[in-house]
Automatic annotation (TrEMBL):
It comes from the Eukaryota. Residues 56-296 form the F-box associated beta-propeller type domain. NCBIfam families: F_box_assoc_1. InterPro entries: F-box-assoc_dom_typ1, F-box-assoc_interact_dom, SCF_F-box_component. This is BnaC04g02860D protein. The gene is BnaC04g02860D. PANTHER family: BNACNNG10540D PROTEIN (PTHR31672), F-BOX PROTEIN CPR30-LIKE (PTHR31672:SF13).
Length: 381
């Protein structure tokens, strides 16, 4: 007779985990909080970071592009590696035309080579040396997280919108590009071959808008469109992984006014994942989390305040630290956290305990020490 697993283990096996940002601007390194929250059958796992911080995810790992650094984090193992932001890392441009090198002017991709299994970061930088210049100067590179080395990448067939959100599916990174007066284009980069390809979009009958997105949806590239007329509707098309020309509509959901909050016109929705029961979990750009039940055609609001990052999947892959990693990040165990949410539990020094109990700042302690020392050293009258 087969023994049934405990109910807790059974619930764990069917529960959908979602990674969300615990919005904190303390500037400390991102890491998982020890406690999660449950919304129905969904478990919300929180990452300590600023919610507005740009990030990319792939197979449980996260990438944070910054002005001077590319940060790769494995939340499950708490390993974090910091890499130069590009081939010309020593050249900082913070003013004038050269400010085009800032992250908001890049097109960034993060994904995993399906052949070698190595995680890679792609940076496409398009800038103009002179005002009125028609063709931009390109700087394209790919970073191998395993070796920590940047290499040159052949330029794409067309310019990619700076700041456009990318997604990795089945070893390729995709960008959805909008051009004035033209239809949008879908660009793919095979991370192993390092070759760009143009991918045909699904025949939706609707033009792409700023609310149109591409996401990794159940290990398929999904084209997501939120339309307002003649009614609010969320449509999701999924691409066939074996034939990139084949798309199929997987969801078409009529959105009620209580879901869209019609007073806010700038509204788009993003699918997160499908539960084991076949229900669709999706979110909007106003921190709200929903669940759609196809059987009853019902939509329920799970949360009014959740900054969804991605579905959460535990990955115990190690991020190597080699001599080729020129700028390793300090381990969290070697320094005190600046956020009150965390403390070094193994520390038992009275200074640390005083800091934690009384929440004194370093400046307050220094100032108090100087006052006491000055009082002692004052000459007695």
């Amino acid at each position: 007779m087969v023994k049934k697993p405990p109910r807790a283990n059974w619930l764990e096996s069917i529960r959908l985990k979602i990674l969300a940002a615990y919005n904190c601007d303390c500037g400390d390194r991102p890491r998982l909080l020890t406690e999660s929250r449950f919304e129905g059958d969904e478990e919300i796992v929180y990452l300590h970071c600023l919610a507005s911080r740009p990030s990319l995810s792939c197979d449980g790992l996260l990438c944070f592009p910054e002005q001077d650094w590319i940060i790769v984090l494995n939340p499950s193992t708490r390993q974090l590696r910091r890499f130069p932001s590009g081939l010309n890392h020593k050249c900082r441009f913070g003013f004038g035309l050269w400010s085009s090198f800032s992250p908001e002017k890049w097109a960034i991709g993060f994904g995993r080579d399906k052949v070698t299994g190595s995680f890679k970061v792609v940076r496409l930088c398009f800038f103009f040396r002179e005002i009125g210049q028609e063709e931009p100067v390109l700087e394209c590179g790919v970073l191998d997280v395993q070796t920590g080395v940047w290499s040159k990448l052949s330029p794409p067939p067309h310019v990619v919108n700076p700041g456009s959100k990318s997604v990795c599916v089945n070893g390729s990174i995709y960008w959805l590009n909008f051009e004035v007066g033209e239809y949008c284009k879908l660009l793919a980069l095979d991370l192993h071959k390092q070759e760009f390809n143009r991918i045909p979009l699904p025949a939706t009958g609707l033009g792409a808008t700023k609310e149109t997105l591409i996401v990794n949806f159940e290990e398929h590239l999904a084209y997501v469109n939120t339309s307002k007329l003649p009614e609010w509707r969320l449509d999701i098309w999924s691409m066939d992984n074996t034939d990139q020309k084949q798309w199929s509509k997987t969801f078409s959901i009529r959105l009620e006014l209580k879901v869209v909050a019609w007073r806010r016109k700038n509204r788009w929705f993003t699918p997160v994942a499908v539960s084991k029961q076949g229900n669709l979990v999706f979110c909007d750009n106003q921190k709200r989390l929903f669940k759609y039940y196809p059987g009853t055609n019902e939509i329920r609001c799970l949360s009014l305040d959740t900054y969804v990052i991605s579905p959460y999947s535990e990955n115990l892959v190690s991020l190597p630290l080699k001599p080729s990693h020129q700028y390793p990040h300090l381990s969290v165990e070697t320094r005190m956290s600046r956020c009150r949410l965390f403390s070094k539990e193994s520390s038992s020094s009275w200074i640390f305990q005083a800091l934690r109990r009384n929440e004194f700042s370093i400046l307050e302690i220094v100032f108090t020490s100087l006052v006491v020392a000055g009082y002692i050293c004052l000459p007695r009258m």
